[in-house]
Hints:
Elements: H1 2-14, E1 19-23, E2 26-30, E3 40-45, E4 49-56, E5 59-66, H2 70-80, H3 86-94, E6 103-104, H4 105-108, E7 124-126, H5 130-133, H6 143-169, E8 174-177, H7 185-198, E9 205-208, H8 214-222, H9 228-238
Parallel strand pairs: 3-8, 8-9
Antiparallel strand pairs: 1-2, 1-9, 3-4, 4-5, 6-7
Helix pairs in contact: 1-8, 2-6, 3-6, 6-7
Amino acid sequence: MDCLVAGANFLLEVVHQEAFTYMGDQKQFVQIDPNDLYPYLLVNIGSGVGMIKVEGEGKFERVSGTSIGGGTFWGLGKLLTKCKSFDELLELSYRGNNRAVDMLVGDIYGGMDYSKIGLSSTAIASSFGKAISDNKERGDYKPEDIARSLLRMISNNIGQISYLNALRFGLKRIFFGGFFIRRHPFTMDTLSVAVNFWSKGEAKAMFLRHEGFLGGVGAFMSSDKHGLKELLANQVVQRSPSKLSFAVDKTLHGSPDGEFNGDESIECSVYAA
Length: 273
């Protein structure tokens, strides 16, 4: 956890366009002022979910969490479908329609919105709720629909709990990371919609371009004896063409759209200060 927080702090303070929002297939980078970064909530979604209030360098506290996380998605998905891997299950969910499995507000109120309490007809009233009333066996449901419902159920739950904890501690920023995300569009979009819904648009879910490397970067930084953070900060400001640790221009800055080519190698030359 020390390394996770150290890696997030480093990337958010030093790397240009590290944070971004993603909703409705729209990716938008967020400029973070290093002098106004703290405090923030870091939500790490692995097998379970850890929620960490970060207040500065080396100052953090795990304030909450939930056992309903990536392991839940993979475990239940493996039991309910024939998928053999996490990525296979995610790919399957993209082809599904959760409305075939979930009970929506419109299913309860005759296809209408429940505008009196601010619920649209397409809001999920009960995840997997249609399985109660439908005269069907499990084999009658499409695996992709089950996977989609499962992903939405877990992502919505994590988004809600994250926002409530941010509200609890008065935190204005929520960053999501961990194995569950890995820049998968639908996962990010669902988390964003959940945070937007529960906060009534006052909060936004944010993601990190290098979220898969938080622990590794933090571990490296914790053993750094050469003031690499200061060197990289100067490199970002000066945009010097000279090569530096992490090959800043190629690796940490990435391509113009912030995406990596799968064939790109990551250069990690370390130079003494």
